[in-house]
Design brief:
The chain is mainly α and 340 residues long. It has 2 domains: 209 residues, no CATH class; 76 residues, no CATH class. 70% of the residues lie in helices and 1% in strands. It has a two-stranded antiparallel ribbon with strand order 1-2. The chain is globular and about 85 Å long.
Length: 340
């Protein structure tokens, strides 16, 4: 208990320190944090679906792109504040994910993964033919006209910080709940989970929609920061590829996985992205090495050798030792008296 309190105090201190960055830090680092936050939220949502729910999707970029486009349409055409439009765009993206989930859940395993990718491509082609949002060439976010650059960057940074903290806290609380335990049971065996009274279809749908909402939040935030959007940038399969890389490196099925994986991804991208094709080859080689020799990722190695588990969500059965009670004294029957 003491260790948990210390960890909570340290976490709150770090959040407060991070929130003060606009007052003493440089704009470059705030922009970098926003970019990292978008990757983190996206990877956390993919991890929730695949790592905890067993639903491996290669089409999460559909919700990322829709979140960005809905944000831009609401802000540019509807006059909505861009930061409010991020949330509204995520809600609209989730509403679209509801009917599309009916198609996705007709598929299983590898077919589900490829099916989500195909649906994402359909969404990309559809958006690319809508001229009001720029068509295939995309368009710029003009809703910030008249707003100072410093104010826009500061608020964007704080929104990204709130998104990161909220994602970690809400996912952790969910996984510690009965619903989180049910989700992990579905991942291990849908048949066994259903036999225990779990509504498998409803739980999978809920996680699919939550993941779509989170990815759309990341998309809206990303393009609020970049101020420009295009179909190729918003719906690129690289978003899901990078999300998978982050989770595999950090540790699939662990909350710490996307945290550490995002940090590693940012470091590699920051220092090696200028090498072009070799950079992508390096990312692939690193992912293959981790898959072959450390399937639980960096967090799995830390847990195995150091016993570090920052966000414990696993249940461990502990058998309690029951002390044997002394047997009651034997009653002796007196045959002569006829009494015991």
């Amino acid at each position: 208990m003491t260790r948990n309190i210390v960890a909570a105090v340290v976490a709150v201190g770090l959040v407060i320190l991070a929130a003060s960055l606009p007052f003493w830090g440089e704009a470059y680092w705030m922009h970098e944090f926003v970019m990292v936050s978008c990757f983190f939220v996206f990877a956390m949502m993919w991890n929730l679906m695949a790592g905890y729910g067993g639903m491996v999707s290669v089409g999460q970029q559909a919700w990322f792109g829709l979140g960005g486009y809905f944000m831009l349409a609401l802000a540019n055409l509807g006059g909505v504040n861009p930061f409010v439009a991020i949330v509204l765009g995520a809600v609209l993206s989730t509403l679209i994910a509801l009917p599309m989930s009916k198609l996705a859940f007709r598929l299983q395993g590898g077919y589900f993964a490829i099916g989500t990718w195909v649906m994402a491509e359909v969404v990309r082609l559809t958006v690319a033919n809508i001229s009001i949002v720029g068509g295939g060439s995309g368009t710029s976010l003009t809703a910030f006209r008249g707003v100072s650059r410093a104010l826009r960057e500061n608020v964007t940074y704080w929104v990204a910080l709130v998104a990161v903290v909220a994602t970690i806290v809400l996912v952790y609380l969910f996984l510690r709940s009965k619903q989180g335990l049910a989700l992990q049971a579905i991942r291990d065996s849908e048949v066994a989970a259903e036999s225990q009274g779990i509504n498998v279809a409803r739980m999978k749908l809920a996680v699919y929609l939550v993941s779509a909402f989170g990815c759309a939040i990341a998309g809206g935030l990303y393009f609020v920061s970049n101020l420009r959007i295009s179909p190729d940038a918003a719906f690129s399969v690289n978003w899901t590829a990078f999300g998978i890389f982050i989770v595999m490196i950090g540790g699939i099925g662990r909350i710490e996985g996307p945290v550490i994986g995002t940090l590693v991804f940012w470091l590699v991208s920051h220092y090696f992205s200028d090498y072009g094709t070799w950079y992508l080859i390096g990312l692939g080689a690193l992912a293959i090495m981790m898959t072959l020799y450390a399937r639980q990722g960096i967090t799995g190695l830390l847990d195995r050798f150091l016993g570090v588990d920052l966000f414990p969500t696993r249940r461990v059965f502990v058998a309690r030792k029951v002390e044997a009670k002394p047997a009651p004294a034997a009653r002796v029957y007196n045959e002569t008296a006829g009494v015991a």
